[in-house]
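Notes from the 1:1 (GR / supervisor)

We went over the backlog. Supervisor wanted to see one worked example end to end before approving the batch request, so GR pasted a single chain during the call. The sequence is below; no edits were made to it. Supervisor asked that the structure be written out right there so they could see what the output format looks like.
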Amino acid sequence: MPRSDVATLSRRHFLVGAAGTASAALLAACGSSSTAPDTSKPAAASAVSTVAPAGATTAPTKASATLSTATTGTAASSTTAASSATTGSAALGSGPINGITWDQIVAKAKGGAANWFLYGGGQTTNEYVDKFVTPMMKEQFGITVKRVPLTATVDAVNKVLAEKQAGKTTDGSVDMIWINGENFRTMAEANILFGGWSKALPNAIYIPWNQPSVANDFGYSVNEREAPWGKAQFVMIYDSAKVQNPPTSFKALEEWMKANPGMFTYAAPPDFTGSVFVRHVFYEMTGGWQQFDGPFNEQRYTQKAPATWDYLNRIKPYLWQKGATYPEAQSKLDQLFADGEVSFTMSYNTNAASQAIAKGAYPRSVRSYVLDAGTIANTHYQAIPFNAANKEAAFVLANFLESPAAQIEKAKIEVWGDAPVVDPNTLLPADKATLLALPRGAATLPDAALAAKALPELQATYLLRIDKDWIANVLKK
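Structure output shown during the call:
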């Protein structure tokens, strides 16, 4: 949501300009950005700080407290062989984790608490957790969910890294983290994640683990160290009453901008939506993502990347404010669109336009679309640190979040509108029917149309380099 966080460049500034804010943008790209001015620096060189997993939104919500279906799933027998705590591979949905059956895990977790660290800047997410997840966890499992809001996910990563460095291998302060992207990779490479558990959860039977975008987090193998929570995919948003034929390629977008100067812009990377917009340009201008699949290739990147900067500099004179400034955050771009100052906005949340229409922020003529070459999709997850004090409570919470009931509630546009990670074909008929019958909104594309155009994320090293080089080669030019 991408990315594991949404980055903004300053709490105080609306825009990012080439003069005076380039250093702040570079600092953000290198891992210390957030809306908080005192965000700690990453404890590991590869840690990245932005603000929220892709898919997080800030629209208001009214979450229902009704549980429509069972939450524990129809897991395989708990007599299945147990997996190793850190390296084993359990049978899908088997339940035993580290030799403990699922029933024993649930019993041990009862009466306890789970300290869940997650981005706190999204009202819809917070209300979903506070009004639905928290009461259900208490009612059904006797577990108290303690939501610990973060300005930047890297703050939780740094906390666990610091505890490891201090020799605190048990009774850690973080039980679970909402995470993806470079923050996950940082924790995995630092060996500070608990492993061998995510496929053992009873509700793992509903997860399409065979999909590359689920099995791999920004090109890095999940390897049973994360439990999927939701999905995101980039969409372009426009007002069909004002734009008859929206451009579906960057060549067409350039021609449209020349004919309509000042009516298009994008948020400044490392804002997560601005960053993914630039990555789409990178994909198209360099000849496709496939050549960059896998570990970072310096020679290929250096050879191909300049075409991206050439394009972005070429369109600069036709951008809003002639490219002298960029919206510092996605929310600012959304406001420009709502005010009619630009003709397009964009989002990682495929329901964003429908939600804005429902709130009255956008006219009913607003629609979403994807590019002809496809758009980038990813998954966001839950991870459990190696030294979590309340692992059993975290297992139960992660399992609940994957339940049909919790996924259906989360998918409701009036609640959050986050795309479910469960495969509808694995659900019981009633749950599948409920999920598929959810109102989508006129501006939300069909699942099949989105899936047909889904592109993978590159490994996070590319993301960081592209953000950094955008600052040097576009913002400063």
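Supervisor's comment: The CA atoms of residues 2 and 54 lie 2 Å apart.
Batch request approved.
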